[in-house]
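S.,

Sequence below, as promised.
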Amino acid sequence: MPTRTPKDPRVRKLRSQAGGFKRRGNLAKAEECQRELKAITAEDYIKRLVDSAPPLTLAQRDRLASLLRPAASNGGGADAAA
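The prediction came back faster than expected:
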């Protein structure tokens, strides 16, 4: 089954870079590209979800935003968990 070519040029570039870094043994840079790819994928998904959903109340937006904010108990944010 053929794979779809991503429309977003950022995704194509990062995939290419990640593969190149991995082939040359630079696993840290490859992982950095993969992390950025996941962030772009999440960003695109969230945007599509928000655009298709009915308007959120202020309380709902705050609750959803809290999922993306760093938790005080773990001493860091999303970068600390990665």
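The chain has one domain: 9-69.

Coffee later?
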